[in-house]
Records
---
Amino acid sequence: MRVRLTFTKQGPLRYIGHLDLHTLLERGMRRAGWPLAYSQGFHPKPRIQLASALPLGFTSRAELADVWLNAEVNLAELRHRLQAVLPKGIDILGITEVDERAPALQTQLLAAEYEASLPAELASRLPPRLIALLQASSLPRQRRGKPYDLRPLIHALDLYPSPDGERAILFMRLSARQGATGRPEEVLDALDIPLDDARIERTRLIFAS
Amino acid sequence: MLTPEQIETRLERILLKVQKPGRYVGGEWNSIVKDWEPDRLKAALIFPDIYDIGVSNVGLKILYDEINRRADALAERAYAPWVDMEALMRQHGIPLYSLETKHPLAAFDLIGFSLPYETLYTNALNILDLAGLPVHADQRSDHHPIVIAGGHAVLNPEPMHAFIDAFVIGEGEEVIHDLLEALQRHRRPQAGGQAGPAFYREALLYDLARIPGVYVPRFYRTHYLEDGTVSRVETLAEGIPNPVIKRIVAKLPPPPTDFIVPNIDVVHNRASVEIMRGCTRGCRFCHAGMITRPVRERRVEEIVAAARQAIRSTGFEELALLSLSSSDYTHIQELVQAISQEFKNDTLTISLPSLRIETVSIDLMDALRDRRSGSFTLAPEAATERMRRIINKYIPDEDLLRTTREIYRRGWTTIKLYFMIGHPSETLDDVKAIADLCKHVLAEGRKVAGMKVKLHAGVSTFVPKPHTPFQWVSCDTRESILAKQALLKRELRDRNIKLSWTDPEDTLLEAWLSRGDRRLSDVIYTAWQNGAKFDAWQDQRKFDLWMAAFAAHGLDPAFYTHRPRRVDEIFPWDHLSAGVRKTYLFQDFRQSLEGQIRVDCRQRCYACGILPTFANLRRDHPGPAWKCPEVKSPRRAEAPPGPAPTPSLEELPMVGD
């Protein structure tokens, strides 16, 4: 049985990396008594696939993972047992069964949406920069010494006040295809926004199917 | 004092600039967050090294559970921030805080340090300073937390006497409750409804000093002879015990099971169960073996139940069964059978360290299917018959070779052998024998398992620890240690042999700190002020700075470690008792000089003193858990024994070099 989890990564858990999140889920599922299917070989590992690595420091409202089990279990039961033993910050938003032979999540990922929460005074200076950035036909940049074009990786940008009106939200939809990943911190940098001032949250992952 | 919210706001600006920020945020599964109700005593438990090392410390975990089980108290945790984090915390005015609720340490009533080894001392000072607290105990007021420390290193607490209000000597499970109750009794009303600690400090410390097993250094004064050794220790108030006898629990309480599950990768990602406490082998160099007496074992069913609950509660991938000498656990076969049966359907890795050098050990490891690490560890410690007799760890070469051959034959490709150099009277020939033995083990391994076999020789350097039969001997000199290590490096050039060793600077620092008297406090303070911290980390070591600190206070480090001693010398730690008589230790030392072996004391009691010290406890708790003989004498009134007698003056040779 293959199940797909949608979950949040909030609070202190934003300071743990991708591999650590993997281990955290694994241990949680063992505590919950999930009948995990293990890989063969000398170092058997549970078969868990995360859709996309979330950069350290980002929170998320929409992470996805596929997990293989070697028994059929009621989904509501699985969800209930796991949620009871997860540390604060991970809330299970949904659980579905998927076809065992369906393609891996990573290969189906097209884009990801992010919200960067910014101080209001900073946001007031942003609209002209935003327009300039969207109007550019290319945005040549370097990342880790490699030149690349940021512009085609940006699918959409928007700016609006936060619900409480105290901060501004910069919305970004960026490419997340394998080998063509737009990074929110690169967009902020291109907009001349200091990373220190922004809190970034991933809000949605968009898949092909 | 900053509020938790203010601390969190400031943290947010720095956490993404440090390595592994997950160390500093808490939120782990099984961590316990209780409300800060005014009447509750708040305890901060601190392992003074980084999170990655401290989070799996079992001693603090026991205390964390003991305290949090009480309705009138709570316990939270803190660790030493790594140097990158410390710099940013100081720059942003963030005091050290607890992981559970982000309260500054200064808001706690009690700060408890675990000090299992001496190279943590400067970190403890640094932590007090990072908390914004006066580092010196005599500068703390009624509105500062009470600072306590426990752990193996504090069996000689004197080097840290200036910084710690009260030391717990021995086992903490019961005495922690005595401490908390004393704290509750001496709370004073807060001026203007302020939060934070408030005690009638003087009265509290006096009360603490009279709890069995608690040492409050301010009630003792050390007098010295002209040669710098101790002449006597004076008690400064009525009813202050001398000696302070360590605390033990008669019966080991149920082991902790709900271990903190770190959200990041740490050194020991595992649940553990302590199967027994103490050791009956009597290796003369071994501090733990002397200070953790008597042996008390847990029952097989209790261990299996705890292991089951620990794995269920944590989801860890590894379980460790801990003790000082697993092979000596009475029902080891039964235990291993039961554990392997319990987890037969799991992918769990089970480790059983500290096994004796005999083929039975391999059967035990086979039963636990321990092939994960691919290596098998044994600790012969010495390689010649003469040295083995001196240290009282006697394993004939034939036994070692038979065992290692069998280990390779059954499929382990790597054997780790632990040795120690610098034992008393050791020569270069004894050291060369270590290299020869390693080569022999490897050659024999190749005969049974081919060229793929490997050997890892871990060669540490002996430190003559307090409360051991070797407390009278000198440390090996830096030059001699270097010569011995050079010989090993020269001899062990095979690419299938990996050699590791301890730099002599690290050994000497450990020796000075473990054997120091009260004057070492000034040295530690100066060294810390000049930048010493993380002394256990080779890349952080600042040896010259320590030498300068000794010089600044007119002390010669060699006084502590490199001189002949009179057999009736009063050691700086003689007013602290581990329950083992000094006369017993001295007798054992004499037997060592004669190359006499003492067999496992389960076979024959050598009257080390543990039984008379705890005779009433032993009487009250009969049964198989305690491995010392039954006490038959009538019950004695609960009067603490007098000061440990010193050896008679007729045998007054100088010992050492």
---
Amino acid sequence: MTEPVIRIRDASLSFGPRTLWSGMNLDVERGEFLAVLGPNGSGKSTLLSVLLGQQRLSSGTVHVAARGQEIRAVPGGPAPRGVGYIPQQGVVEFPHALRGTDLVGLGLDGHRWGIGLRGAAERRRRVAEAIDAVSAGAFANRPLSLLSGGEQQRLRVAQALVGEPDVLLCDEPLLSLDIANQRAVSELIERRRREAGTAVLFVTHEINPVLSYVDKVLYLVDGRFSIGSPDEVMTSATLSALYRTTVDVVRIGGQIHVTGPHSAVCEDDPHHSHPQA
Amino acid sequence: MEDFFDLDLMLRALELDFVQTGLLTAAILGVVAGVVGPLIVMRRMAFAVHGTAELTFTGAAAALLVGVSVEFGALAGAVIAALLLALLGGRSSEQDSVIGAVLAFGLGIGVFLLWLYPGRAGNKFGLLVGQVIAVDEANLMVFAVSGVLVIGVLALVYRPLLFAIVDPVVAASRGVPVRLLMPVFAVLVGIATALGVRTVGVLLVIALLVTPAAAACRVTSSPVVATVLSVIFAEVAVLGGIVLSLAPGAPISPFVTTIAFLIYLVCRVIERRRRVATRSGGQLKPTAAATATRQ
């Protein structure tokens, strides 16, 4: 049994009197696909911030193991290596003088100091490879600001994967994409998991587009949470207990539909503000 | 009007020492402005640059009052203003109003300081419209050192800075110290602004720090090419402006700003023709793309 790539122990996170979650224990193994679900403000994105070392836990420990090396995520410290991150589409408005190749290049070495003239050929090769892998060659040299949301998200996947991460953190990457692009982008992420054993932590409010890939679900509601396989967590009993009200989980044609009086159960709006730089 | 472009007079003026010093100063400024410009445009901080430039006036007025050099006061004013704007204007949605508030207060203070000054301040204030020809040897050194400093620091932080400006969310996830880099960039912009104020003046500094870069970003989508073009445009505007101002003995600002604006217009025309060509080629569907990114 190899070490899990993400290990969270007795973790709790509160802001003042409000506890987002507490007593959380979570292991994510190599090559595992974890979907993080829950209503607005349940701390899904904050969990990603913790894993990126941007947010300190109130108590407990978190380890992100990358390249066989354990790194304790510490706020203000260096970001854990070997971690890729895909934000939701439209989270930044791209300037005109920026192309897909530039975005992917920054994903490779944008965190390094200097101009980066050395190794330019190797850099170009790796960027081109990453762009090919997401079939974005046709539009990677156009201004990002002129691309569609789906095209931008393909390049986001390339940007996250060009650094060969062991862990891929995705923050609602399918939001505001149409069905075809949702499928295309989630397939790219799934392929990486299958071929390179990259662990995927996928924050989403809609499980169906990735349901066939999901090994494990973390469902967060008002400080309560449940962890298990989709069959264990996505049931009327489990979700009713989490929401503390009657929730019906219906499976139709390989899809899971959650219905209930709780208005936050079915949500379609983009949400959670990102820390502005 | 015929001696407006008197070639003979212009050539004779070019042989003068102080004119050559002025051109050298302007050339340094052109490089600094050209390199910093695209980053300013990408970060959408043209108004912040304008605010910073106007607050050099407050710094200069303070310097006048306490009896240090006006140039030093302008530089200090610019750096402090740029830092203040960077630290107060956290969210981009609030930046506009923060600049407005700080700008108005700073200018008020400047007017007050000037009123306190017992002597006549009028002749010390080439700052508003610039007077590059008045730059002497000692100031040239200050220019050169500031220029090397800005370019040197930029070379060191360029990649993470670009990352933090164009893609702050992912940059932060990769460990780029976004919160630290922005004040550093603000100081660099402050220094560049102070240099620009010396040349084209408070009111027109945007013509060198923003217009050339804005023009460059119209015709290329590569940040590197944009930077090279922006340096060339800035040099053409500032050197061309000075040379053209020699014969009529006019202030250089109108010439610099006119050249910069003409370059900008030409770049817009080129961009439009290209886009029409692409559209008729049936490759790009701008309306569809625009709708998709608006969601």
---
Amino acid sequence: MSKGKIKEQEILKTIRAEENWEPVGPTPMPEISDLRRWDRRLLKTYKPFYAPFCDLCCFCTFGKCDLTGDKKGACGINISGQQGRWALIFSLMGCSAHGAHGRHLVDYLIEKYGEDYKIDLGGQVAVEAPHIRTVIGLKPETLGDLRKAIEYVERGIINGVSATHMGQEGNDIDFESKSLHIGMLDHVAMEVADIAQTIGFKFPTSVADTPLVPLGWGAVDKSKPVVTCVGHNAAVATVMIDHLMKNGIYDQVEVTGICCTAHDNARYSDKTKIIGPLSKQLFFLRTGIADLVITDEQCVRCDIPELAKAAGSALIATSDKISYGLDDVTHKEVDEIIRLIVEEKKQVLIRDVDKAGEVAAKVLPLVAKGRTKEILTKEKAQELANKCTACGMCDRVCPNLLKISAATSGVRDGKFENMSDLFAKCIGCGKCEQECPKSIPIITLMQAAASWDTYNVRVGRGPIHDVEIRKVGAPIVLGTIPGIIAIVGCSNFPEEIEEVVEIAEEFAKRKYIVVLSGCAAMAAGYKKDAEGKTIYEKFKPEFDAGGVLNVGSCVANAHITGAAMKVANIFAKLPLRANYEVIADYILNRVGAVGLAWGAYSQKAFSIGTGCNRLGIPVVLGPHSAKYRRLYLSRKEEDDWTVMDGRKKELINTEEPSPEHLSTVVESKERAIITLAKLCIRKNDTPQGRQLKLNHYISLYKQYMGTLPDDLQNFVRNDKDIPIVYKKEVTEYLKSVGWKPKPLLTLPTLIGTYESNIPIEAVVK
Amino acid sequence: MSLPLHYVNVLTGLKGCRVIEDPQALGKVMKKAERPLLVFGPRCIDIDLGGKLAIEYGVEIAKTMGAATCATAHTKKKLLELGVTPDSTYDAVEIINHLKDPNWVGVKKQGNHDLVMFLGMRTDFGNQGLSTLKHYAPHLKTITLCPYVYPHATFSLANLKVEKWKEYLENLIQSLK
């Protein structure tokens, strides 16, 4: 439904249109189809590429329907429509997870501080919420404004979910447009969540040089009472830490975390320790080092009650999203809950943040009493592996295609090298164990083969500072900082966890800006150099050439995309307010930012990536992500690369496939590195910037492929683009392939290449 | 149909591959192709089949039947070391994206291919790419040369131990001569 006058008035009231910080742009609070023309323009060049994971549809009672090839389901949907529907469903799941997370934090903090509680991200961050400003058109000032933003996201989700119902949307491109919309909302939701927790829990902000915190299971002093928080929502942990301090026992216990709650715990207190990414969840909980396990939300294993029981750990579940079938004791008195946990050994659900935090702090020393924590010895491991017949069933079910039986039979024979290697590649699902006909606890065996060293991670720093953007804005847009490499997402890595460090280091050494978040930020800490330093100690923490920075947990990803928006706003002076199309167009054509989700597994990662794509940021995915079943690929030089020259107002066929893809999967680390370098190329690069970008692309291509890139001719516009160091051989190569100079333009934009209400003047500043 | 070695690739559908256990029979299928293409994935660089790498078997197959070649991931470097210049270099999803189009010019600019062989992909990644071709490229046939059942291929080898695989590839090459 198009907007009527009443609805328009409601929107203007919600965004306080009368405030004149910027003029209200064309799309305040866009509905699900309001940016459809932008999406269709993107998808004209970057067409959906589908790799169906399942040939059937089993959504309704008409089915199961076989959709193979050109067959349709009973409702009329075809295989592409079905894949588009999955894409929308994944985006909705991811956006909902972050949205509900943000809603929980906002509601909790409004209860605590009131809706007028001010947003203040410190002296370095004036553009506090680029997503909320750009998408909604609101400059949020209070927690109440954040609630408005999350309500807007919630409305979008309902509309999106309705489109997935049988007999609704059926066209793949329209499913994709809706998926892109929900991905965009996801970044709003993440921004809400991270701003709320930053102001509510007083996380560090406007500081780049945040402390280093210990990383790894080896960092935990298991002689102390140990609590391990698993998930993504640190609310309960912050209250627990307050009580531990108040009770005077904070230095006598170990507060640890797995996955993003660990990041946010560390932002609250740098005395906490990060165990690692979600791939180490099963491994660590199995050790029994945790006396108390607290679960909150997202990426938490479904079998934690069983795991905690087997390991002798107490368990408090704290989210209504993960209730585990446990008794809800929220209404009971604190002392009674403690009695239930300590005396009756009950696992409980406490849905009240403050009560859960208080109970956790009080119960921790009690449940730790008398527990012994023995890590599996090599001798005991060998004994457990003794029954291995190397039947290979574990190999068949491993989602990472690992040779588990060779490692297990090696342990049986007293050899641990293969198991150590396996541990580095293990994604920690435990499917091998349930398939083992001899019931060998393979994940447990890894205790005897894993390194128990201690590493470190820099505490998540939150938003990129405005002053940093002012410094790097011009070099990024001109290309003299070759790019921003954002390494994000989960730990479903195809090979060793160390690959993340190698990729990050490759680009940091070359003076790209390397930004990390979530499990990828933890993975980057898992390698030391000869001097014992991790990547966080070797590179500066600023958002600058050669910097390596951790923005924080998953929801802090909004600050990475937000930084690209700030370049358009702070450097290029484009208004953000309700001006999504112009900002996305600017980023696509001029900001050389690329995301890498090397171990993406969740629907959240899919949704984040889709939101990046709508904003004009390409994403490279690891091989597991082929199972997401949708990419956005161009046909390279065979496609039409016509853009508008904004200053001359002329359509120009640039003949240049940049950025070449919006969402692609690569199979090896080497190819990922080359692809990342190539996807930083933008049409707006100056000759100096293009030379630098090509210099890195050529150098990396030669390193990993042995020759000059065989698509080099696509990215050299004229002689001035050729890197001096490769001048002779590149010139010879270009001659050999019949290269001709390409048209030059001063202000590339897609605005004007499709029907849009945006005037070309809007992109010229 | 045989189960794939890796359960992640279990077929959820009705149209699965035909497993060809006899290398002579597979050779006959391959010989019929007019414009065959062999796509190299990165895993064939590291698999040693008794002193000869899997990628070398691929090179021999391509040479014997006159197939065009495509290096994906970082296989180009190894092919060059072996003295082979691939006819094209793409990421796996890029070459598959091109192959979907019946009017594509092909890697030798002589028209799209009618038969595509794959060697050395991760099985999960490879099976996803084959799914794309099964659904969107009815104009071509696909063959996997790895020792695993790939349900989305047109023709696949069975799940084979390394020694049997080596024997299969050697017999296949003989049949192509």
---
Amino acid sequence: MSETTPPQEPSAPRRSIRTTRRDFLRGMGLAAGAATMLPSLSAPADEAEATPDAAPATPGLRETGRGPRKIELRINGQTHSLTVEPRTTLLEALREHLQLTGAKNGCDRGACGACSVLLDGEAVQSCLLLAVEAVGKEVTTIEGIAADSRYARLVDAFCAHDAAQCGFCIPGMVVGSAALLNRNPHPSAADIREGLAGHLCRCATHPKIIAAVQAATGTGGPT
Amino acid sequence: MAIAHPFLYEKPGTVKQALQLLAQHGAGARVLAGGTDLVGQLVDGLVRPEIVVDLKGVPDLQEIRMEKDVIHIGALATFTDIMESPLIRKKLPVMAEMTEWVASRGVRNRGTMVGNICSAVPCCDSGPILLVYGGKVLVKSARGQRAVPIAQWFTGPRRTVLAPGELVLGVRVPDPGKHGGAFVKMRRYKGEDLAQASVTALLLAGNQWRIAFGSVAPTPIAGKRVEKLLHGKRLTPALVEEAVALTDQETAPITDIRSTREYRAHMLRVMMRRALEAAASRKAGRGPAYGTELI
């Protein structure tokens, strides 16, 4: 696991004094020695670093062997070099190797939409992709969407409409909505329902989610 | 849950290389197209392949094209590709209608029609559609090539006539000419749900009918008795009722997690009536528009 630097180390520059829940839990986990429980496949810290100068992957590239191999993935505009086995799913690669934990592991069978990411701009369930299948593709996760000003209105609308209750489905919902808006900038409520079918919210905030997407696109809904 | 079983992964760049790998590994090889079925099976440990052969390195397999009077749908054409293909919407509108109701956008963006008939679950929506349109499955191996009529393709749940070492290159559907049809699918909710039952009806020139069912037998099946009853006749309300009455004889629904046998049997009759009426009115150029849900 990469985040072994204690936050209080004086030489470590902190971008912000805000501590996220995940940072806090990670710190607690390390303090308790829980790091030993992490999967042995997890990438060492240096693998998560961007390597923008690396050569692009060749389509049709032959990759052999069952064991770990080094691959490069384009994620949120950056090239990441990491070591995965063929059986590693893209979701595992994102969450456990690159610490991009925005995509959630809900059902692990493509039924809930919580793990959605954009693959070359199209929504896909990252639990149904092997990480090696994403080589040569442009992956955009919720982290990339949250940092992209083009989606600021959408993200803000989710907050303004209080669309999240427990929030577990929300990263997938936002990714699904972003894909929908890329295809159809002015969807009707029916288009939004259809576009987000397959994204399940167990708190049942679907009406607020639909209203948020409508508000973000000026196609109706409150505020 | 991670995939427990390790496997080799190869991404051949040509059909020839893919066939070599399949010949070499036989029943230990699994072909990967969209992965929406295979990866789930890997996660569940239901398949433990020696090697996964990713077809996505082979060029041209995603094509949907017209060849003389045959529509060719490549093995890598996704449901989204099919749904958005102007050729399919024009020539095979009932197929386009079906693709709109397959799972969810994310799954349609990856899942392929060829993968759907190769995984061959009884509820696969592509099966009934290819049955009514008389599709053929183009199969290639190191030994040669064959075209299997879809009626001979499925042999049981998750079983087909595809032998180890064989690869499906695509499906081929003859141009049906002017026709009308309807795909009626019952499911519990919109989005990622499999069909509890489906009825597909196709009305061709000369009042020839093609009928197929999904999720109500071990494989997708044709409705031969209804086809025979309706053959050459103009559809009347009385004839519709006769066809509806035959539905019980055509199908063998079971009770499972998605529905009871009785509910399926009842709804099959409702769906048969609506499929026949919609097919006839669409052939005559009247509504309901393709894509309108009929139940």
